[in-house]
## 1
Amino acid sequence: MSTPEVHQLFHNPIADHSFSADKQTLAVARDTRVELYGRSDNGFKLKDELKGHDKTVTGVDVALQSGRIVTCSQDRNALVWEPSPTGYKPTLVLLRINRGASFVRWSPSETKFAVGSGARAIAICYFEEENDWWVSKHIKKPIRSTVTTLAWHPNSVLLAAGSTDAHARVFSSFIKGIDERPEAGVWGERLPFNTVCGEYLNNSAGWIHTVSFSPSGDALAFAAHDSSITVVYPNGADQPPRAVVSVSTQLLPFMSLIWNGESEIIAAGYDCEAFRFKGSEKGWQLTGSLESKGRPGLGDAREESAFNMFKQMDLKGKTTDDTQLKTVHQNTINTIRIYEGSGGAVRKFSTTGVDGKLVIWNA
Amino acid sequence: MSIVQQHTAASLSENWRTINIDALDPDSSTNFDTSTLHAAFPPVSHSEIVSLGQQIRQLLRGGDAESALRGALENAPYGGDDAVKETHLQTVTEVLQGIKASEMTPLLERIWGSEGGAEILDVLVKYLYKGMASSTSTSSSSGRPGARGSNLTPQSTGFSQMSGRPGAQNESSGAAMSVLLSWHEKVVEVAGLGCVGRCMTDWRKV
């Protein structure tokens, strides 16, 4: 395994990050603004800053085809940034929520996006041509608490949401005139707006940090604060799911996860490193970390002379310098995203976290 | 003057800015019924839990500590009232105290490796924290009444360090605490920090 590509962007937490389709532009949510970095020869250079929010930005997503950027923030607003020759032009979206927005993602069709919020609602936003603005429709029931995370089904109609009421849910976000009628599948046949296609929680019922559909869209994985991941295989409308597999781990909770094909999940979180899970309907297992421990250059390989040892003991009261974690990330990983892949298989993925680092890994 | 006072009193009584509007909204998350987060528990009566406790003590006396611990943890009375839960805590604490320190880790590893073992260890962690939290000494008061016979020794100064023994109660609860702490250390070694997190998120309280 080749070494990961590590970029220390700055020393602030990164709430969310997103790459453009050509991977030349990186959008990073930093405090109350979004910073755009351009790829230069051996790193990333700050190109532009999107200043429009006046509270912490919680989510950023770049639409792959149109290049539009959507951001959401604790100031209860979402902005769509339209690329133009003179820079990005923001448009305010009417979210109609009375609490902060927590998460935002474009649908794969890029005609709408979903914003999760502390107002116990998901705003599904789409562009209304005749009024020339972005409007939103709310999914409210049966959400009982803050929506922490969202994920789109490949058909752009189904939306998975995780919430602090410990439920991962699958909703229909079908909007007439915008979406094509989806084909019937494992999640249901008739899918008018706000249909609840599934509602899942695991035994210890921790709040949900992340949800994700498998590449085919026929399975849903979520990670909760009880250090578990749960994979659901549904079985059509109004039927109990074929299988619900839950893996409790010895680790700290996962904040984000991606699928690599239908039989592998990569998850990362409070342990500051990414872990691989493998399995199928019959069962899932944690197979290990994606990092090779004890990489050179972390100080443990250096042979200490006796003189050095006593000098260190005199200066610092200890012989080894253990202020660094053995992982690449030095703090919680918040976001993990597919960087490069095809047909559901991931070749490279990127992670950002509280330590202000962007790391591009080989899956 | 009086009008001003009236006005102030009225605005104090109707201090609408401080009204917690979330409490008035039935859909609000403050009115969220957390019992919907788990399946309904079957009720457990006091006699049931006492007879279960006897069976478990019998296993323990017979030297089968693993079955005793498993039995105690698999049958945690989630649906019982406080007295039932307290009784079962007593049973679990006795089992924990009856297992030698050298046997803890191999025992925990066997349970972790078995089917549903992670869940059993999560329950164990719940009992460890409950045992630590209960203020009354849960140790089966293995007090040694004879040991303090030296109280009779006359103290010439009249300043008796023995009388009263304010630390006596603390000593036995301290012993119980050290058992719980060493179990806690061993469980976290086997089941990782995940089991502590699960214990905190879980709505099924022991």
Note: Residues 215 and 343 of chain A are 8 Å apart (CA to CA).
## 2
Amino acid sequence: MPWINTYLHNTTKAAPLAAFRIFFGAMMFLSIVRFWSYGWIEKFYIEPKFFFSYYGFEFVKPLGEYTYLLFILCGLSALAVCLGYRYRLAIITFFLSFTYIELMDKTTYLNHYYFISLLSFLMIFLPANAYFSLDAKRNPGIAFQYIPSWSVDAIKLLLGIVYFYAGLAKLNSDWLIEAMPLKLWLPSSYDLPLLGALLQKTWVIYLFSWSGAVYDLCIPFLLLWNKTRWMAFALVVTFHVLTGALFPIGMFPYIMIVSTTIFFNPDLHERFLAGLAKLCRTRKQVFDNGRKMTTKLITAGRPKLTVLVVFFMLQLIFPFRHLAYPGELFWTEEGYRFSWRVMLMEKVGYAHFKIVDGVTEHQFYIDNTDFLTPLQEKQMATQPDFVIQYAHFLKEHCEKQGYQQVQVYTDSYVALNGRRNQPFIDPKVNLAALHDSFQHKNWILPFNDEIKGL
Amino acid sequence: MIRRIVFGLTLVMGAWACSSDDSPGSGSDGFDRSALLINWADNIIIPAYEAYAASLAKLTTAENQFTINLSVQNLEELRTAWLEAYIAWQHVSMFEIGKAEELTLRDFTNIFPANAAEIESSISSGVPPFNLELPSSRDEQGFPALDYLLFGIADNDEDIVDQFRQDAKYGIYLSQVVTRLNSLTNEVLDDWKDEFRDEFVENNGSTAGSSVNKLVNDYMFYYEKALRAGKIGIPAGVFSTSPLSDRVEGLYSKKYSKVLFEAALQATIDFFNGKHFDGAGTGPGLNTYLAFLNTITEGENLATAINSQFTKAQSTSGLLKDSFFDEVETNNTAMLGAYNELQAVVPLMKVDMFTALNIRVDFVDADGD
């Protein structure tokens, strides 16, 4: 296929990727500082007595007081990425430390964090330090003004997947026909200046639902096309600033706004970098060496490309894995995470656990607050894989206390997207006798309703 | 740039909104959270604290009378004042917000049962004034300590009075416990009256730290922990392998656990329904807030469901004996039955009501998706 060959050998100015690297590193550094300053390291990773692991990653645990060192490492590597200092080492360190942090407790899972992990993984394979970096300054041998087009396009592709898949996920009856969960969320922002009163109106809520879906589906294409790019960027800013004002989503809106600047023409980035150079009392021209990095030039280029092809294939397929499970995805959450299902559900649950001593047949209930933080309890109550992990923890805990052949049962209720609560987990099933797996969990009670759509 | 776009968009939407003609009464006006908070503060919380503080003043008088003139009759009067104040307490216990939260009022007022051994050892080996400020002394003071001192230090009334006669330190301890109840309460009430009332009412936003979110979380916590578990569940053995009759409220007086429980349950129901403390009227409450939100989601009326479950809990627990101690000892199934009805309120509130009000569980200020 000749066009692939041609494409692989296309080059483009390195400025967009360099600017992206600077933004990304700075944003990540700020995110870590923000996380720390809110006391969240303590609260999420040191205070809890128990942590919910991802299946297969049970060995990833917080490191006690050393968890702070992990965050320091992560923050410093973000800073090094920003500066382009020992970039390859920095981005690998960042990817590993950030991902480790995310794997420590799935209670704090956020699609944004997953996105950051993927993006930083991708950036390991991109020559983001070829231009306007300390590396390029110190070692002119690796400095290039032009880099392969695919290295910039890879980031655009990942961003495009995130948006488009988030849009696809919104094509369901709850979102489009019921305007759920926005009907639950928006009215409570009644105190927002100007918008507050409007958010009480049904048509406004539907407008938000539908335009949100259309936005997610269209924005990658609008950003790609020259003629619509500025308008698209204005939409990006509006959309994310609005969602940032309406929902507690932290740094994410700003990260996305900044990330989408990669779609602009390189001239813009060059102007930005020239300005930045002035601030740093250096000259951007130092990097304008006219050298072209071709795909061939990248050392061990072929395995790198293979990694990226496999990476993107996985990205395209993985979000559809829920199709392999029976039952309502929003209810069972089998295949829900890692698939850009963002802000689709308001799910609130309550789970009351009963312990039965299999020998004496004594039984008693557990006070969850003895073991879990409020956030952990909230997440546990609505997600079956949390429920079973917690049940096993309770079994072990009670057996240490001297109870024998411990059985664990739960009375649990979940309300999904404004529906009244329904029993969630089969109360007759001894959870301690089951094991978590990727197989369908037939002990989740059926969902007494239907949500149509993707 | 960002501001201009947002501003522009808002203008467009504003113009759109003004041109659209919503039919009146279609629920297009936002729920007035300020009115809700004003009703809570002015008609429920502050009057309840005032009544409680007044009952504590009476308790002080009765206590003075008793310690000056130790007699069985004065003991009886002191007990009456104690019960009255203890019941009044049940109407404010759920409002652990502001100064009450800062002081951990509930923990210093009503951790039951009192630690009799510690109280005895303080009295026999301690030198007055006794230190009741330490967190570790929480179960040596408040109403449960009075319960012990007025009912539990000897087998009959004569002997109890005698005990006070023989060792003046009992009287000193008693006074100190009463004084501390007064001072803590007045600190909370004064704060409500000085500045907290306005702070509370003005914090009418929807963030995690807003007054509605905080108080509803406190209310839920109170219902689950102090009322459902503390007064019924724990003594009935729901959280242990066997019933724990010695964990009832008013363990030493034995006969008041039901009165106290019923006052507490009624107070939580009245708060839910925005009923004024003086009983004369009602204002906006969680029930009307839920009814308003139903006009947007067009769901079933959750407030009705919650109220009917409350009624069930009341009628089931109404059949219990006056002494939960006796009930646990002789007929614990009835206790468990009452617990189940109380428990059935929890998912309705913690799941459905929290969803409807879009209130996040306590202090979870983490980022979301």
Note: Chain A touches chain B through 64 residues (CB under 8 Å).
## 3
Amino acid sequence: MRVTVDVDRCCASGQCVEAAPDVFDQDDDTGLVVLRAERPTAAQLPGVRRAVAVCPTGCLGLADR
Amino acid sequence: MSLRRVVIVGAGAAGIAAAQALRGDGYDGALTMVGDEPHPPYDRPPLAKDVLAGSRPVADLTLCDAGRTTDLGLDLRPGTAAVGLDVAARRVQLADGGTLPYDGVLVTTGVRPRQLPGTRHLGNVHVLRTVDDAQRLRAALVPGARLVVVGAGYLGCEAAAVAATAGVHVTLVEPGPTPLPGLGGPVGALLASLHRTHGVDLRTGGAVRAVRSRGNRAVGVTLADGAALDADAVLLALGSTPATGWLAGSGLTTTGGVRCDAYCAAAPGVYAAGDVARWWHPAAGRYVRVEHRTNATAQGIAAAHNLLAAATGGAPRPYEPVAYAWSDQYGRRIQILGDLTGHDGQRVVDDPGDGHLVVAYRRAGRVAGVVAVDRPRVLRDWRPLVDRPWPDTVPPT
């Protein structure tokens, strides 16, 4: 699975970092989402799914490949 | 009881989050969503920002396109208003005369903008809640036009910023001492300066006495101090009231929102989420209602989870989020973390100048929340401190 990010939509809420700190980070200056791991491990996937669900702008996704 | 029929009343962000969470948690029964607007669910925050500015197409706002609707097995019925709820018989009454029997219902009907009495018939007096509202207002934002915005809350401030940037002559009227008066002096002063720098005529401490009209058009606004403002268009940004009229006679308590317990439950089989819900926040120790986009999604997920848990013997989870909201004005981002309601103190914790600012808010000896203007990193550092004892010294930034 691959994480997709539409950074133009990001509102810097930091919800994704709360849900999956190993996979998401925030830019120091803008607060916008920074992807730390494009292909999450099986152990990281539940957190990524939570992050995708709670993102207030829907800028995160999970693609099959 | 077994859960085979779920009805979601309200086709917005909270409703679609609930639908997705139900399917994600394995619910495989019937799922119906009704909404009074003629559109499938869409995202509202961009309406006062990119959509009003014309920099983002409306089609881009969808939260659930046709493919996703099919994937979710969602019977989506836009343009279908609910007019009643029979809690005992577990039925939703529709405006078209139909009824929807349910095992579980989620109330996600959101809010309606406040109006000024006697202005509804005036074609150029606007509110801003729906995509249709946004498109009507956008058409009025032509360079040189005169716009009076009544109310400098989030919506009024954002719309004023978009309009001023588009070359519209904007007067922003706010009864409080600053824009976003709930955030207090330092942030308010910064915002006031920002609006004035961009040419907005900001009238704080100003109340509207009357909207002057000729025929079906407003021609101006008279303030309580006698000032007469001419206007080609007026935007009422006076806040909102929960859309609970359809629940009259249901037996639910709807004063100030649909009253729910800590699990977002209003009655057996009835859950509420998003702007319309007023729930018992265990960590805060009081009932709260939050009109923010982030809450709509998070509470939609929580309510769906607890509805499913109640039906299947699973473990319900109390819903006690740390609130988060954001506002974009003139390219500045204002971030609000925590619930600042009733704060009893504040302290500027970072003031590097150039319009950047971080203020922490205290309530009853604890950190109520933090507001940051273009300082996301400092905001992040404060996140773990929300609800903790108020620090005697400011943490290093």
Note: The two ends of chain B are 53 Å apart (CA to CA).
